[in-house]
């Protein structure tokens, strides 16, 4: 859709010399993915609230 912005994020986690490396790699990947989702949700929330504030302002201006 040309009217939408696409946000792409990529992360690579590599740990060597640690006996828990595969566990830590999965943990870091999970945390990174979770944080990316939070970022997207925050952007969507801000957009929706900005549109609501704009609409409220327009209604207020029409009432003057």
How would you sum up this structure, described in words?
The protein is mainly α and 64 residues long. The protein has a domain at 39-64. It contains 1 helix and no strands. It has one helix at 21-63. The protein starts with 20 loop residues before the first helix and ends with a helix. InterPro entries: PRELI/MSF1_dom (IPR006797). This is Protein slowmo homolog 2.
What are the key terms here?
64 residues, mainly alpha
Quote the distance from N terminus to C terminus: 38 Å
Let me know the number of strands. Answer: 0
The amount of beta strand, in percent, is under 5%
Task: Give the helix/strand class.
Answer: mainly alpha
The gross shape turns out to be elongated
N-to-C SSE series? H
| Nearest-integer average pLDDT | 80
Helix content: 55-70%
Give me the Rg, rounded.
Answer: 20 Å
Could you name the ranges where pLDDT drops below 50 across 5 or more consecutive residues? none
Alpha plus pi helix count: 1
Largest sheet: none
Pfam family, one: PRELI
InterPro entries: PRELI/MSF1_dom
Organism: Lynx pardinus (Iberian lynx)
Domain PRELI/MSF1: 1-45
Short summary:
With 64 residues, the chain is mostly helical. It has one helix at residues 21-63.
